[in-house]
Amino acid sequence: MFKTKRNRLIMIAACTALLVAAVFWRSAYHVIKAADSAKAGTPAVPVVTTTVKEQDVPTYLSGIGSVTPLFAVTVKVRVDGQLEKVMFSEGQDVTAGSVLAQIDPRPFQAQLELAQAQKARDQAMLANAIVDLERYTVLWKQDSIAQQQVSTQQATVDQLKATVQADQATIDNAKVQLDYTTIRAPISGRTGVRLVDPGNIVHAADNTGIVNINQIDPIAVLFTLPEDRFQDINRTIQESGRRALEAQAFAREDNKLLNSGKLILVNNQIDTATGTVQLKAQFPNAAHKLWPGQYVNVHLVLGTRSRAATVPESVLQRGPNGLFAYVVKADDTVAVQPLRVALVQDGTAIIEEGLQAGTRVVTDGQYKLKIGSKIVEAKSAAAAPGNSQSGPPPKDTAAKKAAGQ
Asked: Which of 141, 162, 318, 338 has an alpha carbon 20 to 30 Å from 180's alpha carbon atom?
């Protein structure tokens, strides 16, 4: 019994010794492997780099606008009658003064002729009254009639003169009413859908007109900008003097430039509900690239920064102390460079302070870097998947906030 117990203790002691030896061997193996790795050196991190460029950069404010006619008119009738003829086609370009429609003029022509006849009658009566007045005046001087008869005849002459003047006013009014039967375009522009067909009885009190005309060349764009940019706009307008600020309209779908125009209005108050100020720009539109109701992106050009240091927006990184960039030194190691950014627009950052033209900076793969890391140039296509797979979230919003966008 004592022998069996001793053999069991010996077996336990042997197993314990083997386990301790295995642990010691594994620890030694990892120490040797770590030493070998240290001797071999840390592998270079693949990144994409670029150099800081110096260039003239136009600065602008961006907003979303809607295209609106420079002038828009609903053509309505001004007299009652039957619409005889329509002399325009839907979608036709018309000039100011062009005849668009005709109302039956016969009732108004008759009123004009009646007024003219009335005037002719009153003029005849006036002529006779003047002759009588002259005769009575001679007789009064001969003391053949009383003064009262001369005064009465003078009043009759004055009354008939006033009647003739009223007749002329009636004639003028009848001519105006007759002229209203010919409906002309008040502005130059393009007609829309015909709202009334020939043969209908139209009234001056009707709510609907005959047609809408929109002036589309030139054309206008209404857009809004944040109220905190008003002072920048106002300062630039004052500095430019009589020269209007340039505005550019871009298509929403592909951001293609549609046309360039000029700023014609900064609204006289800020919308307190939205915190924006409304602006209006005018654009030449001979090619009809802009159309009423269309939404466009608008750039209000404030000026140009000459010889500005620029980098892609992806260069900007955000740390606890603000924006920075990884700068590549001559030995292909990276250092952290704090930045002050003036503006970020169209994916390009304008550097106010921190970088000089020609400096090499990292644009992609920053999430793997730390100060002193060795880097190697990688193709953008190869580096991008790794960056998007395990990198930090994009810093566009943070960069724009820091830049004052």
From this structure: 162
